[in-house]
User: Fold this.
Amino acid sequence: MTKASNWLSCAFLYLALFTSSVESRTWTYQNGSSIEGSFVRKEGDYVVIQKFSDFRQISIPLFKLSQKDQDYLRTTRAETAKIRLANPLKEYFPDKLQDANGKEIPTSSLSGKHVGIYFSAKWCGPCRVFTPKLVEFRDRNQNNFEVVFVSSDNSDAAMKNYMKDSEMQWLAMKRGSKEAKDLNSRFEVRGIPSLVILSPKGEVITRNGRGLIDQNPNGSVAIFK
Assistant:
């Protein structure tokens, strides 16, 4: 594989993962017309929907949706708030993650820490450049910062080798799992490496963790505030 195709693969593989993992439902307008798509986020008095037909994101005024869909959005947001209050990381990760040896580790071990969700793969050139910086940053701040690796490696063996060779002492999602694909979809990851930073309360602080660590390689978690 050439260097150019390697870099392109980093971007386009995640586009494929993103479009293949979207769960769709029917949204109905007040006038009776409807579209198939999935909820992305709410922005003020608008809701952003990912269309199933062409995967474009569109913003729809809430008042134009049927009462049933408006009620659905209120329920979904209320349930998400309750889940986050009880277990801030429950909406992102399964109950157990794994280490570089494949040993299962309770997700509760992340409690009270900032968490970086790291989308990466060994075959990705830019990832191999950034990963050592992230390893150094994590090791320096491991008391209040942890990383969860979401791998795009071609096999479990390749993922484990990447973690061991790079001295990743952090946790990882099961490679290719539904939960891992859901994270790709949720954060609209189009290229790697990508680093999303969560607060100890499970709130998204930034999707540009990579840029912040590149600019502050010797910093602390204070750079995320």
